[in-house]
Design a protein that fits this description.
It is built from eight helices and 13 strands. The chain has about 260 residues and is an alpha+beta fold. It has two domains: about 140 residues, Fructose-1,6-Bisphosphatase, subunit A, domain 1 (Fructose-1,6-Bisphosphatase, Chain A, domain 1), CATH 3.30.540.10; about 110 residues, 3-Layer(aba) Sandwich (D-Maltodextrin-Binding Protein, domain 2), CATH 3.40.190.80. The strands form two sheets. The protein has an eight-stranded mixed beta sheet with strand order 2-1-3-4-5-6-7-8, sandwiched between helices. A five-stranded mixed beta sheet has the order 10-9-11-13-12, with helices on both faces. Strand 7 and strand 8 form a beta hairpin. It starts with 5 loop residues before the first helix and ends with a helix.
Length: about 260
């Protein structure tokens, strides 16, 4: 595939190179009969290898751009107003448990605004991408959010706090309200893919908290460019800082906000 936007091309080519190692390592994880700690160590190595490839490829193409990466942190270069935001393996726990649902997420931020974004699922070879003001796509096909208005017809994605994360008690009331009214709720385990599923109309809405900017920077732009709404829990646009995000097909946004 070749894309008209040079930044999207850079994202795609870098993600494809990094994905080769992840696909190979995922196959090894499936075969490993070791303790969870041993698998986790193996996955951490896979994560770091993928990130190094992404940093190398993006730095070769755009050596002046800054980088914010999940494992390496902030890498300062000469262009102060522009940076890549990288998550080399979103869905690490899925990877650990041999669940084939994970992604590479890369966004380009300029003057504190996301202008280009890509989320690549290596196992399905799906590349979701967007450029600000130019729409959202999966591979070469335009994608749009769903058109559903009735909550009972909707499929909603979420992320459930697990061991070591705060907010278990405050999460339950919203879940109880929503699950009694919708067609289904899915907890897939990769925020970047949850967001692009909203963009593609597979989910009608999604909410989660305790997220990092690397988890949601790309997907949030893709949802917006697909015609959807993205806010924090208060209906404001502070989600990249707060880590609390609600993304919908626009039509059910206020309803979902009121319930969480």
């Amino acid at each position: 595939m070749n894309f008209s936007d040079p930044y999207v091309n850079a994202i795609f080519l870098s993600a494809r190179k990094a994905s080769k190692g992840l696909i190979r390592d995922f196959g090894e994880v499936e075969k490993l009969q070791v303790s969870l700690k041993g698998v986790s160590d193996f996955v951490s190595a896979a994560d770091i290898k993928a990130e190094r490839i992404l940093i190398r490829e993006l730095s070769t193409l755009y050596p002046k751009f800054n980088i914010l990466a999940e494992e390496s942190g902030e890498i300062k270069n000469s262009e102060n107003d522009i940076r890549w935001i990288i998550d080399p393996l979103d869905g690490t726990t899925n990877f650990v448990f041999s669940i084939p649902h994970f992604a590479i997420s890369i966004a380009l931020e300029k003057n504190k605004e996301i202008i280009s974004a890509g989320v690549y699922q290596p196992l399905t070879d799906e590349f979701f991408w967007a450029v600000k003001g130019k729409g959202a796509f999966c591979n070469n096909l335009r994608i749009r959010v769903s058109n559903k208005e009735n909550f009972k017809d909707c499929m909603i994605g979420t992320g459930i706090p697990h061991n070591g994360m705060p907010g278990h008690e405050e999460y339950i009331p919203g879940l109880q309200k929503i699950m009694s009214e919708v067609s289904g709720i899915r907890r897939m385990g990769a925020a970047s893919l949850d967001l692009v599923y909203v963009a593609a109309g597979r989910f009608d809405g999604y909410w989660e908290k305790n997220l990092k900017i690397m988890d949601i920077a790309s997907g949030s732009l893709i949802v917006k460019e697909a015609g959807g709404s993205v806010t924090d829990f208060d209906g404001k646009e502070d989600y990249l800082k707060s880590g609390k995000i609600v993304a919908t097909n626009f039509k059910i946004h206020n309803k979902l906000l009121s319930m969480i």
